[in-house]
Design goal:
The structure is a homodimer of 220-residue chains. With 220 residues, chain A is α+β, with helices and mostly antiparallel strands. The first copy, chain A, has 8 helices and 8 strands. In chain A, strands 3-8-4-5-6-7 form a 6-stranded antiparallel beta sheet. In chain A, strands 1-2 form a two-stranded antiparallel ribbon. Chain B binds a DNA duplex (30 and 30 nucleotides) through helix 3.
Chain lengths: 220, 220
Amino acid sequence: MPETESREMYLKSIYELSSTDELVPVSLLAKRLGVSPVSATEMVKRLEGYGAITHQPYKGVALTESGLKRALIVIRRQRLWGRFLADRLKIRWSQVYDLSCRLEHATDETVSEALAEFLGYPTTCPHGHPIPDPDGSVEIPPATPLNEIGFDQEVVIIRIDQPELILCEYLEEKNLLPGTTLTIIDEAPFNGPFTLQVNGKEISLGREISARILVEPTPS
Amino acid sequence: MPETESREMYLKSIYELSSTDELVPVSLLAKRLGVSPVSATEMVKRLEGYGAITHQPYKGVALTESGLKRALIVIRRQRLWGRFLADRLKIRWSQVYDLSCRLEHATDETVSEALAEFLGYPTTCPHGHPIPDPDGSVEIPPATPLNEIGFDQEVVIIRIDQPELILCEYLEEKNLLPGTTLTIIDEAPFNGPFTLQVNGKEISLGREISARILVEPTPS
DNA sequence: CTTTTTTATAAGGTATACCATAAACCAATA
DNA sequence: TATTGGTTTATGGTATACCTTATAAAAAAG
């Protein structure tokens, strides 16, 4: 399979979207990549032909072993670049994901391994995700979506799932970054927003966003 | 004009090839980019339509003012990445040009300016070429092709023109890098190779290669 | 000045990756 | 069970960027 940027993006997106569920609906994939469902189906067939994914019609797609490895190698590169952009170049946290996404496709093994050494083999990206090994293996530290946490439980943000630009700009403004400590102090009815206590301030946060914020109880 | 990788490569190549002559023959451009003359002509027409280059049929192409600026911005990015790869990642000198060439297209202004600051605003790339300003302006320090230098004149290598992989691997092996001091001690007849004195050793070097090595007399 | 070489153009094709529209199909629900 | 809605397939189209083959035109060389 020739490694094009488009194919790498599909594999990466399937990986990111399959974090919760087993099968990723093609429609969801299409929405994620900003293409029509027809285009996504086309590409899904191509990737299936290459043995990178499996497709259960009307159900969704999943990465094969080799597809998963490819995805994780791409993700390793993006997360290494993420660290570089954030830590060394002092690029704004919210911009890092999108910018590292462009660099990941222009990076081969020589560069990514030299970069890893240069950075001192970091273990997580600026959004809190673990950086896979060069051979494409990761262990994902357990964490709980913020919307599943009860009241008055002090938690610390571990990572942000699917950290797109708009979400990150919002979180950056509210200072909800990995490492931030917070407590849910109220919950509006009818699936309304949570009220959080963060750095002595009260913040209102919608359900959808809070599902993307993964936390764990503070080790008190 | 949408900035595709291919277009950026054409503009960059035209710039690099026009260092000596005014007009770059389309055939030369085609050879440089590894495409057929027909394909190069097609692209030349497109770029002319965008106002990035001018084309004098049967003569060659030249960058317009805006095309030159675009080319120099791309070149700035490549040369900054070149410094990063060589100095920070310790990538082998001969590999740097090709690897930085991939990164240049994945870099926007935010990243390239942050990179410039991180690197401490270097003035030359690892091959000795000056790094253009962010607005696309350069001054090229004078230097003489090695094949135009007389005998027994001690010179120092300033830069390597068109530093492709194969050339660089050869030069790296022979230790002919920017900063190296050498003297031409002999010249074979019928356009045969030069004999150089480098680091106490004698080296034989062909004419074509020596035309790519730009030097200046050592300030003795 | 003619011939050869180089350069350009014309015509037809390939591959990737996207689009819209319409028809067929499955699944879940009313 | 029939219908609705999401999914898939089919068809035809776009854009980029490459290819080969062949012809035409200009430049250089004899």
